[in-house]
From TrEMBL:
The EAL domain, residue ranges: 322-576
Origin species: Acaryochloris marina (strain MBIC 11017)
One annotated GO molecular function: cyclic-guanylate-specific phosphodiesterase activity
Protein name: Diguanylate cyclase/phosphodiesterase with EAL domain
Chain ranges of the GGDEF domain: 180-313
Origin organism lineage: Bacteria, Bacillati, Cyanobacteriota, Cyanophyceae, Acaryochloridales
InterPro entries: Cyclic-di-GMP_PDE-like, EAL_dom, EAL_sf, GGDEF_dom, Nucleotide_cyclase, Rev_trsase/Diguanyl_cyclase
Amino acid sequence: MSKAALAKVLSALEILVLEYQDDQSFQVIGHLPSWYRSLMGANQEPSAVIYLADAFPFLTYFLDDALQFWQTEQEQVLKSGLWVEVDQSGTEIPLEASALGLDDQRIILIALSQTTYTEKSVLIQQGRENALAQSAERKRAAEQLRHSIFYDWLTELPNQSFIRLRLVDALSQTKTGPDGSFALLYIDIKHFKAINTRLGLWAGDQLLMMVAQRLSELLRPDDIAARFGGDDFVVLLRPVDGEQETRKITEKIQRHLLVPYAIHSQDIHIQFDMGIAMGSSLYQQPEDLIRDACTALEYAKSHGAENYAIFHQTMHLQSLTRMQLEHDLSRAVWQNELRVCYQPIISLADGSLQAFEALVRWQHPTLGLLSPDQFIAIAEDSGLIIPIGAWILREACEQIHKWRNQTHLPLSMHVNLSARQLDQLDLLDSIRGILAETQLDPRGLKLEITETMVFNNLEYAAAMLRQIKGLGIQLSMDDFGTGYASLSYLHQLPVDNLKIDRSFVETIDTSGTESEIIQAVIQLAHSLNIDVVAEGVETVEQANRLKNLGCEYAQGYLFAKPMEPGQIEKVLHKNFASLFDAVQV
């Protein structure tokens, strides 16, 4: 039947002609019968867009089935249906419809009318309950499908698909409104994989649900929080009055998220990194906004003392530089571009050489010599710290074994252990293998950990450290003092010494407060039979003040800078007492 012929037939009937739209609705383009108004309300105009799920639940599925049939069979076959709908007053209205696919433009003409055929009344009566039940069930199924498409199954937050649609809406408003009226906050949980490794996948899921709940509690009426995937969340903040208000909201979210999480009867301390992109009319697609929020997130990981950053254009270049460094770093070990330097650790009692700290440097082929601050964070984030850390440990163990044999002194080597390494399932086997390969007495090795590494999950860290100590290795707490609140946890860790952070040492000769803090730390350490090493000692006054406070060991530029192995050979038998014994405090 041609379109013209069909139109002529339809024009003679009491019908409703609908045209399929891209937004999955049907536009009324034909006669609007009086009984239809009882369903939708008297104010409904023929030109309005009709959402059939609201008006004719069963008809919606009839049309969907017809569409699928035409798309599959590619035939113009007239399909008919008969069912019962219920209007707003609860009155049952028996309806019948015919549908025909006209072309490949997905345009559908529907002949819909209220049936009065008596011979069909029995069929209608028998099918009434089934039709209504099926309609309700299909509506529920449709809602479940919609929920699965737009919501995260674990946290019940909106998902990536949902937030992208809302970003389209937010970006459209920037075309007429001011820039900075909304912001996208991208949130990453630090070391989330460690939670799964240490406590199991169930604990990881619990943490994600708790984070989602806390975010939901902080939302303002128009804000939207979503799980973007894995351990990443995003929050669409709107409205906001520029960067200043965005910072205030972000810092409030930070404080709320940093409260410990009770999992497996443990208080788990979690850190977060956050990147922010401010809404702007310059953005054309949601992906551009998300990209810049992620760029700001990466910047925060490597630069942000506040653990969050707002995107600015200069970050693009920095992001590209970081990507290039990560690429270059992946081959640095195999290209022999890494170097290990060693800084002496001195006894403040008699100035004798006691130990060394292994510090890695990168001799980049084009950028020159890079310090750890320029690439270790990249190694941590990318996972390259695992092979790099193993290489450093092997080099350091081999070197200290050589120096112990040369001097016949019980020298030891301090080597930093990263958070990623502590989470390695085969860490103990790796350490055993390196000790055996280098033939180093385990007592000649001290592994350094940081407060943050153990504070995040004290019970797991304590258990792992006890296993490491069981190998005969000593343990040192590095950068102690930066997490001063964790002093109360120190007795739970099997550490042999702690290193006071340089930020306390540098003002010890001018600040009474810093001296009191250091004295308290030293007294606590001694009460637990733990020795103390002071980092960053650069003046005679600092060395003597530390000595008088009872600090056993020190390292810093006053004694020696980090040196190549060949330079260390010259100081193996040196005594450093003359550098600080000359002045007494």
